[in-house]
Design goal:
The protein is mainly α.
Length: 444
């Protein structure tokens, strides 16, 4: 019964936001991404559930965003003019090319059914991207950062409870049980939780740039300590490496180097405290020194399979979403862990196997466009010393969203979700909007 009640509350809330305040659906998407546990909140919806796929708050919010944006698109000539500008943006064009490439691969796919399913999922995410770009404007470009930052902090009590009590409130049945307790909070996978925490850390950096008050800055520094302690409790080796890479890039792209160095210092302190209490986490981290054959044999054979598939199908690959099918049918001999994974966990190798050199070229072009956007923002705003005017200095906001995309990309080399992650599409939408003139700032 409670599931139907939660469903009713969700639908009513989203309807109100769609009609009255659609702009708030965008930060809500950032919050919903953190609530993978919401898949357990809702009842079986039958055919509707099958159409939505896995029923979750993220799916409901995505649908609400699409409906809110496209309803206004039909009613507003200004919205249609803005849509034209969005479609002409180089970043949109690259995303469309990837989507078309993936959909077209059904012609030669080793598993046409999965290719169609993956193409449909990308199409929905592309619609979310368009919807966010239509609904948001530059004045409110910090909203997603604020939402993710606050959400990551609100998960701290649950994180510490799980980490020090040993009781996980939710763990999907299909996940392998590990020797080290890995905190996942409201996420299926501790690695994805670690990714979200790093997104919160990046958001903290950007929000600090727009804060003058010293006491508020100190509060942000204290928040960093909490976020870092949460990250350590995930025991995510990929998360630690991702954070290190993001900190190095942040030292280059952002001016608040004190905050980055503060994270390094705090990270060492918080890590030492947590590792003193939970020495098993340290043992897990040290396993990396033993090589992937020992520390993670699953990923090793998945890498070998992806490279073998790419070698045999170098130009176009075997079709979007077909990795698992091809692996099980033709390369199963490489699988040396009886209950090991069969889905690829590395984005670059997945694209290489499924879409070949053509897919990798599109991925490289995406990064060229992203970096060129950031350099353009820098050239337009490097003359402004005041970063507190969002109109005059969009470089720092743009750098934040680029760091978000980079976080998702780096962590996806160990987990696999890149184009499938809503945060990528949200960040791309904001980068498109930041490049617009004021004439496209439409209040909704």
């Amino acid at each position: 019964m409670y599931q139907w009640l939660i469903l009713g509350i969700t639908v009513i809330t989203l309807l109100v936001l769609m009609i009255k305040k659609p702009i708030w659906l965008i930060p809500l998407l950032g919050i919903a991404v953190a609530l993978e546990i919401s898949t357990t909140w809702y009842p079986d919806l039958g055919i509707v559930g099958k159409m939505l796929g896995m029923v979750s708050l993220t799916r409901f919010t995505s649908l609400a965003l699409i409906l809110a944006a496209f309803f206004r698109l039909f009613l507003s000539w200004e919205m249609r003019r803005k849509l034209g500008a969005i479609i002409k943006d180089p970043l949109t064009i690259i995303l469309v090319i990837y989507l078309v490439l993936g959909a077209a691969s059904v012609v030669y796919s080793a598993d046409p059914g999965k290719t169609v399913a993956e193409a449909m999922r990308l199409l929905v995410l592309f619609a979310v991207f368009i919807s966010i770009a239509l609904l948001i404007d530059k004045e409110r470009s910090l909203l997603p950062f604020q939402a993710v930052h606050v959400t990551a902090l609100l998960l701290a009590p649950l994180t510490f409870y799980e980490g020090f009590s040993g009781n996980l409130i939710w763990q999907a049945d299909h996940l392998l049980k590990e020797h080290t307790l890995r905190v996942n909070a409201t996420f299926v996978d501790p690695n994805i939780f670690a990714r979200f925490i790093i997104l919160g850390i990046v958001a903290n950096f950007i929000l600090q740039l727009y804060t003058r008050d010293k006491s508020t800055k100190l509060a942000y520094m204290a928040c960093l300590a909490i976020l870092l302690a949460q990250l350590v409790l995930t025991s995510s080796r990929g998360g630690m490496l991702t954070l290190l890479a993001i900190l190095i890039v942040a030292l280059i792209f952002l001016p608040n180097r004190k905050a980055v160095l503060w994270v390094l210092g705090l990270g060492a302190l918080c890590g030492a405290i947590v590792l003193f209490i939970r020495p098993d986490i340290w043992e897990r981290m040290l396993s990396l020194t033993q090589g992937f054959a020992v520390s993670n044999p699953q990923r090793l054979y998945l890498w070998q399979a992806a490279l073998a598939i790419f070698k045999d199908n170098p130009i176009l690959g075997t079709g979007l979403g077909s990795f698992q099918t091809v692996f099980l049918n033709d390369y199963i001999a490489l699988k040396n862990v009886p209950d090991g994974a069969t889905l690829s966990h590395t984005t670059v190798l997945t694209i290489a196997a499924e879409l070949g050199v053509v897919g990798l070229t599109v991925l490289a072009a995406l990064w060229v466009v992203l970096l060129s956007k950031l350099f353009k923002f820098y050239s337009q705003n490097s003359g402004y010393l005041s970063i507190f005017n969002d109109y005059n200095n969009k470089y720092y906001v743009g750098a934040g969203y680029l760091l978000w995309i980079l976080t998702v990309f780096i962590s996806s080399q160990g987990e696999g979700r890149f184009f499938e992650d809503p945060i990528l599409w949200l960040s791309c939408a904001l980068l498109v909007i930041l490049g617009f003139n004021r004439e496209y700032n439409i209040k909704v």
